[in-house]
Amino acid sequence: MPKSRLPLNALRAFEAASRLGSMSAAALELGVTHGAVSRQVRALEAQLGLPLLDRGARAVAPTPEGARLAAELAQSFERMQAAVARVRPGPLTLSSSATVMMRWLLPRLDRFKRAHPSIELRLTVSYGEVDFIRDEIGLAIRNSMVRAPPTALAETLIREEIGPVCHPDYASRVIADGPDALAARARILGTATRPEAWAEWARTIGRPDLGIAPDEVFGHFYLVIQAAACGLGFALAPRLLVEDEIAAGHLVAPLGFVPGPHDMQLWTAAHLRHRPDLRLVAEWLRREMAGTR
Predict the structure, then answer these.
(1) How far is CA 112 from the centre of its chain?
(2) Which residues, including other chains, have CB under 8 Å from residue 116's CB and lie 6 or more apart?
(3) 16 has which bridge partners?
(4) What is the DSSP string of 67-133?
């Protein structure tokens, strides 16, 4: 098929539907209607003379031939997007979790903006894996619990230090002067995003037998830290995310902090690693993280 005759819109619609397993999800990603995606895929199948998708009531799945084509298309579209990004780079985007964004990054961002007023840095909140090319992200801060994708250059910024924290008034009422007293007297707060946090801390301090478990679980990490700051109990938190609250007197850490099992990492999009603005932001993040050790 001549290059000028390649049905690029249809190929894009098919690749998205195959990857997402849904015509509706593909339509949402591409900014078109469900019907438009369906028509494009059917036209492509007619042009190639073979079925590419098995259509179910609620989902679609690629046929063997469709799976092979979708894999090649995904790589091709990624290379095209990376080539365009290198030639005409857009604003630099930094991704992090909401907790890191709210409790660590934003309070420090003014220093970077004053030092580098010409750099346009966009922020986006996301968790887990990152598609640097599709989502146009240049840098991501992630906990090492999440594996970096092959399109990223990953480096360790700091080892997390973790410890129980609570409001000063709560600490004065519940004298938790050791792990056993903490388990016996304190109200323990947990988070759904780190369900093993207390067990990890117990193993880290050499007390896997402690059997400490949350009395209440919050949906997000920033919520459990705020709950502790409001006197609702003890939260298990990285020092990185609570040091400002401790310095302000809103939280205390009666048992201190110990090196935990996870690292804070910086992921860099490999195809953008030579951008001057990206390198400046990355170096600033390294210095700021080093200052929180």
Answers:
(1) 22
(2) 277, 280, 284
(3) none
(4) HHHHHHHHHHHHHHHHHHHHHS---EEEEE-HHHIIIIIHHHHHHHHHH-TT--EEEEE--S---TT
Rounded CA separation 193/283 (Å): 29
b/e burial code for range 204-219 (CB count within 10 A of at least 16 → b): beeeeebebebeeebe
CA 166, 233, 209, 240 torsion: positive or negative?
negative
Residue 161's identity, in one-letter code, is E
Both structure tokens of 263: 């690292």
User: Where are the alpha helices (H) located in 116-178, listed in sequence order?
Assistant: 168-173
Question: What are the pLDDT digits (tens) for 216-246?
Answer: 999 999 999 999 999 999 999 999 999 999 9
pTM of the model: 0.72
